[in-house]
Amino acid sequence: MERPHGGNGLSGGDGGEFQSPALERLVRSLSRLPGLGRKSATRVALHLLTGGGAEAHADELTAALGDARRQVRTCSQCGSITEPDPCRICTSERRDRSQLCVVASPVDVLPMEKAGFFRGRYFVLGGLLSPLDGVRAGDLPFERLLDRLQDGPVTELIIALDASVEGETTALYIQRLLSGNPLQLTRLATGIPVGGALAYTDEVTLQRAFQFRRAF
Amino acid sequence: MERPHGGNGLSGGDGGEFQSPALERLVRSLSRLPGLGRKSATRVALHLLTGGGAEAHADELTAALGDARRQVRTCSQCGSITEPDPCRICTSERRDRSQLCVVASPVDVLPMEKAGFFRGRYFVLGGLLSPLDGVRAGDLPFERLLDRLQDGPVTELIIALDASVEGETTALYIQRLLSGNPLQLTRLATGIPVGGALAYTDEVTLQRAFQFRRAF
User: Fold this and answer.
1) Angle at CA of residue A77, ends A175 and A172, nearest 5°
2) Is B165 on the interface with A (CB under 8 A)?
3) What is the mean pLDDT of residues A85-111?
4) Minimal CA–CA distance to B177: which of B146, B147, B152?
5) If you measure CA to CA, which chain A residue comes closest to B19?
6) Does domain B94-190 match CATH 3.40.1360.10?
7) I need a labelling partner for B88 at 20 to 30 A (CA). Which of A34, A138, B72, B182 fits?
């Protein structure tokens, strides 16, 4: 096989790039979004630039991103995503100010609010402790969490973090931070998911479900 | 378990929506991009709105999309992605005007140009015949392909389409369209990929590789 004619100016180099520098920049910018590789970024770029409906969708997306950047902010009290600040959950008269639920990310608030059973308020950490990824205690808003406990006042702090190493580490850190504090510290139950089959449950979950078994 | 308080105005309904309508619109617009579901769209949206580097990346992406929309176009001669029209491949003095390579999508031009072995020109169909998806002969630019054959003039038409049912159907259609035409009609070889292990080659490919075996 003949070797590539590197300097012919037809292809954009050794990366299989488009002839268009503007398209190339768009693909590169898109491929730095979480979850998008170069191939999916290329698909998205071509979708926004060519074919039926491209104009309309690109207009809509540009407008939606602009609006969201102007209107969306982080609640200064709880850290969740909101337009008014403080958010409607923080200011609601109908939420129980004695219960505070600690979650890692604004996204974690969604399933809780969708289910609608929790009537307290939230505190979004914005991350989890992860020495390996360089996320240390100083990087997360634990000071603000302590301040927040005064506002209510909070009598129960519910830790609702991922059941991962990082989640466990963060939960333990909060537990130590609050040692000596009279508030009730609770965490989500570990066990078999509702509808989950015993035979397909991993060993660790099974062991935990056994360990935390309840009386009828 | 208590049932959700549907009408409390805290969650955005039964979809687990954000409190922010602007964010909700952005997530919906993103999730209509190819390859993005609601979850990945949410991740992308939060990446563009919150956390370190969000401002810079959102600025860059907005500018890149705007630039690409203004500058990127489809080559009126070959249908590939370009900024100047006709594209640099179509206008190049160094490309062999007697060879024309038919591909389905502008993306297919990239690996060919990256490898650099092909010195002819391209014709992008912009799709493949697919009766199931409602793509019929009238939807693809076969008329323009016939016109293009005069410009060169083209003596060899190389069909480089996917080895799928749609690709085969389209190849057959082009073959019939050109029956009686004196030009040489060729297509890419089917066989074992370079570096491919025989044991892991699917049966159909193996059969084709056998069928099209060459003399040493």
Assistant:
1) 10
2) no
3) 92
4) B146
5) A82
6) yes
7) B182
Element (H, E) at B156: strand B156-159
ipTM rounded to 2 decimals: 0.74
| Token output for B96 | 């062999």
Looking at beta carbons, which residues of chain B come within 8 Å of A11? 110, 113-114, 116
- What is the model's pLDDT at position B207? 83
The DSSP element (H or E) to which A68 belongs, if any, is helix A54-71
Interface membership of A19 toward B (CB under 8 Å): yes
Q: Region B104-122: what's the mean pLDDT? A: 89
Number of other residues whose CB lies within 10 A of the CB of residue A97: 15
pLDDT band at B14 (very low <50, low <70, confident <90, very high): very low
Banded model confidence at residue A16, pLDDT cuts 50, 70, 90: low
Q: At what angle do helices A38-49 and B54-71 cross, to 10 degrees?
A: 50
Measure CA of the first residue to CA of the last residue in chain B; give whole Å: 75
State the Rg of chain B over Cα: 24
**Strand arrangement, sheet containing B99-103:** B121-124, B99-103, B156-159, B184-187
Count the neighbouring beta carbons within 10 Å of the beta carbon of residue A108: 19
Question: Does the CB of B31 have a partner CB in chain A at under 8 Å?
Answer: no
Q: Tokens 């608030």 sit at which residue?
A: A109
Q: What is the mean pLDDT of residues B49-61?
A: 91
Question: Looking at chain B from residue 97 to 126, which residues have their Cβ under 8 Å from any Cβ of chain A?
Answer: 105-107, 110-111, 113-117, 126
Q: What angle do CA B141, A45, A37 make, to 5 degrees?
A: 125
CATH fit for domain B21-71, picks 3.40.50.11260, 3.20.20.450, 1.10.8.420, 3.40.190.10: 1.10.8.420
Q: Which two tokens stand for residue A216?
A: 């009828």
**Is the Cβ–Cβ distance between A16 and B132 less than 8 Å?**
no
